[in-house]
Amino acid sequence: MHKHSVRAVLFGFVLLVMSSASFAQLRISVGFGPPALPVYEQPVCPGDGYLWVPGYWAWGDDYDDYYWVPGTWVMPPDTDLLWTPPYWAWSDGAFLFYDGYWGPQVGFYGGINYGFGYFGDGFDGGRWDHGHFFYNRAVTNVNVTEIHNVYNTTVVNRSTSRVSYNGGDGGVNARPTPQQEAAARERHIPPVAAQMQHVQAAHTNPEFRASTNRGKPPVAATARPAQFSGRDAVPAREAGAPYNPPANRGGKQPNEGRAGSPTSAIHPNELPPMERGPAPNTGNPKLDQKYEKQQQKLQQKQNQERQKLQQQQEREHQKLAKQNANEATKQQTEQRHQQQTQQLQQRHVQQRQQMQQRQMPAPRPEGRPR
Length: 370
Known about the structure:
A hairpin with a 4-residue loop joins strand 3 (56-60) and strand 4. The chain is elongated. It is of the alpha+beta class. Helices cover 26% and strands 15% of the residues. It contains six helices and 15 strands.
């Protein structure tokens, strides 16, 4: 299983570096949940062979906010491939993001009701038949004067939930079926270039940020990727639920302001090299020398703890490989590894901060002459 640093370049750009074997792995974790899915209409399919890719909330790490990636019609990378949407899931105290992918079957996408055929389990919007995609007009918007490979099968949508994440407080209660776990082990293909451009265009548009649009994006869906203007750019009718973002929206834990922060690294070897704190300067050379040695000793100890945790996690990976573990078990292990790495880094940051505070020169009493 490939391992990537979560903050590689983040959404949009992160799709450029993902290998076809790395899908359904977590990429990013956030401390508060995404808004509800907005209510919107599906734009008409622009042509034969396009498949619907539902909209979702992504995370902009550079501005600490969710942003809306509009639903759009996309030409798949090959025939007989279907899209499994990305999703958010609550696990071990954070919301984790799982990537979408193309594959021969629709896999698990958190039980999220994205609509338009993606009602939480599988896909009812159409099917492949001898290299041609047939659209189910009951749930997809198709112009039958231009596209004739259609059928009409009523689908009972038993959920009206607009919740956009799995698990946790108020989240969707769904778990992957054996068939969906099997789909996760099949051949996967990354999002096509048009999808990557679409995500990046949404990422850079301030109006798509949740704190700005309050869960009601100005463009909820488009007929073609990255086309956010014109008659085929569909606005949201309403937010799926009232959304009031936290005053401090940052999903990151305390860190040193560098890539590889506690919320980004899954394993200790993905953390940035530890930087030495400022040299002690108390005005007492002997005391400064003593403090310098304490800093070196702490850094050595923390490096050893990183190495120990890395070796432990590598042994667990080797064990999973020998057991031929399924994708769900691997995901759970990676989630636990990320939590362990976060906790280790947070503890190390706190230890260094405490040491620096102890080594600060004592304040001079007021009124005492210099």
